[in-house]
Write a structure and sequence with these properties.
elongated; alpha+beta; 293 residues; five-stranded mixed beta sheet; 10 helices; 33% helix
């Protein structure tokens, strides 16, 4: 028998902005001590181990998350996936809904039953699953939860960003069409860290993403206000990336951000991140470059 299957996907995106002027992770969601739907969880993890018919995949097992099972129940009530995730207070990087009609139970969670939806089950970053059965329908949600470094890790995260940036500066690099030679490493500057932290906090608190703050200030004005006397100043922004490595890699992949990182005009750097899971991007990164007078 063929069962009708449909899928819906939700995901958040990461973004970056760059500006210049010359003159680690903690999951947010606690897991249930024991799965509420053990047979369904075993069935979906069997697929993760055996693949969708093209040979063994041995993808890591999913764990049942109570919040995602709540999401599945809301889907059964007619909610949209994004609305259900928000209502259940589950912040995801990527989430997919699978609905199987005309049957329930673990027997429907087979590659031949799921068809094209099997690929969603196999998606590697997914770590959590939720289930809801009602009548002859089964709702399954698989997701990659949003996770970010803890605020207490701020110094370690900033040190990691500085190390990655200096490793990039240590060798010639092409940023778009522009070729940069290797340049000396940047030094940590605590005032620039404060400038970065202030703007990251404002963006996270008020859910916006822009070099221009709500008070109309740019990085030049914010640095001056903080007491940093500069002859050159620059700023990279990122939002949505869950680790410093991803944030820095995103900057290096963007010509304008990469040019800031490789610029010989800068000799110091400060960086910070702020998390607000209720905001649009959940996490905001700011990197401020400078050279003092």
């Amino acid at each position: 028998m063929n069962f009708p299957v449909c899928t819906t996907t939700s995901k958040i995106a990461a973004a970056c902005l760059a500006f210049s002027l010359l003159a680690i992770s903690t999951p947010l969601y606690a897991q249930s001590p024991a799965p509420e739907h053990p047979t369904l969880l075993r069935a979906i993890n069997t697929i993760r181990q055996q693949g969708c018919g093209e040979g063994p995949a041995r993808t890591p097992a999913l764990r049942e998350n109570a919040a995602l099972s709540r999401v599945a129940a809301l889907l059964a009530d007619g909610s949209k996936l994004d609305d259900a995730l928000k209502a259940a207070n589950y912040r995801s990087v990527h989430a997919t809904q699978i609905t199987v009609r005309s049957s329930t139970g673990p027997a429907v969670l087979l590659p031949k039953t799921l068809g094209k939806a099997c690929a969603a089950v196999m998606h590697l970053p997914m770590t959590d699953a939720g289930f809801h059965q009602r009548g002859n329908h089964l709702w399954v949600v698989v997701a990659q939860p949003f996770a970010a470094p803890a605020a207490a890790q701020g110094e370690q995260v900033e040190a990691r960003i500085l190390a990655l940036v200096n490793a990039a500066r240590a060798q010639p690099r092409r940023c778009g069409s522009e070729l940069f030679v290797a340049v000396p490493p940047l030094l940590h500057q605590s005032l620039l860290t404060e400038v970065a932290a202030g703007h990251a906090a404002d963006m996270a608190r008020h859910s916006y993403f822009n070099h221009t703050a709500r008070d109309g200030s740019t990085v030049a004005g914010r640095a001056t206000r903080m007491g940093y006397r500069w002859r050159s100043i620059g700023e990279n922004l990122a939002a949505g990336q869950m680790t410093p490595d991803l944030a820095v890699q995103g900057w290096l992949d963007s010509p304008s951000h990469c040019a800031n990182i490789m610029s010989p005009a800068f000799v110091e750097m400060g960086a910070a991140f702020v998390v607000n899971t209720w905001s649009t991007s959940a996490i905001y990164w700011v990197q401020v470059f400078g050279a003092g007078r």
